[in-house]
Amino acid sequence: MNIQIFGTKKCNDTKKAERFFKERGIKYQFIDMKEKGMSKGEFNSVAQANGGLENMVNWDGKDKDLLALIKYIADEDKLEKVLENPQVIKIPVVRNGKQSTLGYQPDIWKGWN
């Protein structure tokens, strides 16, 4: 398994995801979304596996103005705006090759090889 966890150090679900893999002795790579974010390719791969850009955004997030902007700007501009503001992406994003999940999903991770 080649696990990547995209999240933030302060996010409880990210911490729980890290603990899930640690307890099972599964190595993972942690990517801090505050420092690095996701590349366009990584984002597109995860979005494709999770039903598109709309599902990647945490619409219940704190920055209502930014979320409204993302919701109503032209579709071709949404990706750039989300990548510029990784705080609107649902975390943790956990990747295992082409598979990925949004949020804390231990039941799905258990099925990964």
UniProtKB/TrEMBL annotation:
SUPFAM superfamilies per record: Thioredoxin-like
Domain of life: Bacteria
InterPro entries, sorted: Arsenate_reductase-like (IPR006660), Thioredoxin-like_sf (IPR036249)
Stated family: Belongs to the ArsC family.
Protein's recorded name: ArsC family transcriptional regulator
Organism listed in the record: Roseburia intestinalis
